[in-house]
Design a protein that fits this description.
By secondary structure, this protein is of the alpha+beta class. It has five domains: 3-131, Outer Surface Protein A, domain 3; 143-319, no CATH class; 337-437, no CATH class; 468-475 and 603-716, Elongation Factor Tu (Ef-tu), domain 3 (Beta Barrel); 479-596, no CATH class. Strands 7-14-17-16-15-18 form a six-stranded antiparallel barrel. Helix 12 runs antiparallel to helix 13 and helix 18 (409-419) packs across helix 19. The longest helix is centred in the middle third of the chain and has 36 residues, at 368-403. The chain is elongated and about 150 Å long. The model is unreliable at 1-20, 129-139 and 660-665 (pLDDT under 50).
Amino acid sequence: MNLARVLEQESALLPAARQAEIYPRLHPRLFVRRHEEHDGTVYISVIPGGRPPMYFRMNPAQWQIANLFNGERSYAEVAQLGAELLHCPLTEPEVRSFADALEKDGYWYHTPQEESALLCHELMQQRQRKVQGKPEHGELFQIVLYSFDPDKYLDWVIRHFRWLYSRWFTVWSLCMVAVMFAILGSHWGQVWSDSVEFYRLTGRGAWHVVEFFAIFLALGAVHEASHGLTCKYFGGEVHRIGVMLVYLCPAIFCDISHVYAHGGRWERITSVFAGVWSEVVMCSYASVIWWATPAGTTLHTMAYYVILSGGIFCVVINWNPLARMDGYMIVSEYYRIHDLKGTATYFLVSWIRKNIFRLPATVPSYSPMRAISYAVYALLAGAYSYFMLLFFARIVYHVLYYYSPRWALLPATALGLFIFKGRIRKLVKFMKELYLDKIPLLRAHARLVGGVAVALLILGFLPIRREHLEEKFVLEPAQRAVLRTEVPARVTRVFGDEGQRVNAGAVIAELSDPSVDSRSARAAANYKMAASQAINSQLRYADFATSEEQRKRFALEYQVAKDQQRRLTVRTPIAGLILTPRVHELEGTYLGAGSEIAQVADTSSMRARIFVPEPEVRKLQFIHHTVLRTQSSWRSVAGEVISISPASQVPDAALVAKAEYSGIDVTQYYLLTVAIENPGGAFRDGMTGTAKVFGRRRGAISLLLQPVVDAVARRLW
């Protein structure tokens, strides 16, 4: 016999008269505080130690009604007393509905025997949902894995570390943040590009994902503990902290509902602000450690990971007011608008239902400025919400693509459908409601509706959008010259350094070889002597042929010696930048023939090397234009396709991840070379980024069905 059956039998033994006498009552430990907000006076109450802990917001009328429940008054008596207090009619069903709504949130107090009966009912409902196949966690938005009560631990922390909230420590933290801005500002390009790559989670495999979430959760624990510690500082209680999954991504949470009752507006804002502030302060110390320690050490590497995880993107993500995170809570508290996103979304949806789809809806009345603000915020928040949901599915796709490019789309699509399951159901429900409401109108204008449907179908097949492929690229100069020694010699002088721009024909280095110098001097002396003897023989008409032959032989030796002497001067054949570092260190060294001295590259125009996988090559048959964007910039530039390799080539390891298992098929890659102009010198050798190559125009329906058709055709041919 399971626990639900035991509780069911035990509750059946309760006297019927006693069961009928159970009425709602306030919790004896209920804490209530009055607050003045944008919508007027509200009463915020919390139950210390409640499971799950949460706070309740009530207007004055609701609080007066709730305060009448003492466990002895019936619903009819509460309705009668409430009508006298509020001076308005109040019925028993209205009071019962109000009490039931609070009961669902665990607001009323229950004795242990009553708790047992409620637990029995809840267990039976859970078993019924499992039998019916209904999911427990809905849309996977939040699944709590583990939680505990940290109240006593935070009491100990606040007693010993109360100085964290002192004025001198706040000033010191601000100074450290200023130092962080100075350090990271001098390396802004590097830190920004590395932060983007750190959060991209593409092409790195499972280990990078594990490493990312380990650092993310460690900083998240500090973040959430700071919320709880600040709540304790202002007199609140923290009874729940733990680990949960947000759309299958691990995260830390901390419930600070008590601060909404114990503290005022600024106390609530400070408690929310403390999370990101703690990570920023940690990032400031990590910045100093990263700047002071030598590269390659463990401390240097870990400090940089803290900067990447708790720096730029931590602030951008958490203080973004479009999502229900810290920034959203701060904005809501600052403007004293409870449930900003819900209010704005409800207004926009109601307005669209009533004014666009002509469906029955009640649109709240606001001033024009507030109505426009709500509409804009609802649109931006909705777009950002869908973007983040797609981002989670995209992370799964890129991680799986690292191991199996062919099958990565299937689990990522399944996860996306699972995430959007609730929204798809709402859309289907709305479409049914719209269809049922417009049936008379559709029947009255059947021909018009049919024409619009045919027009939309034709529009779907019209070639409007261009198909494209998106791949990584690496930049290299369009012209590159490698300067080498042609004869063994010693470097005597160097006339250029790394990053210096030189003209074509400029001298880069001078070499010296005593043997070459002596041969050149001897050849010059021999040539002069032979030339003099030839002239004398011609004047005397004596053996001129022999003297002339000797002069020509020494002239040839002299030309060879001069050529060897000329090779001791190294010149650049093209204009450009010297790429080789520390060229001056070659002075005084002896180099053999063919040794490299420097590289000179013409960076006024660059070439992008794009490795296209074999399944995407068909899109290169008709190339319209190409757009490239480096990781160091958000701007894109146009490029011109130069060539497509006729045979497959081995891609650069930095661009294409290598398959780690022999059972994964490795596709072939073809090199696409694209030329881009670089007049300002913003692009450098070795930069990487993403290129989009646009082809012919195709219809939207054709583009959507093409992956499905290809996947089926590959397996069924």
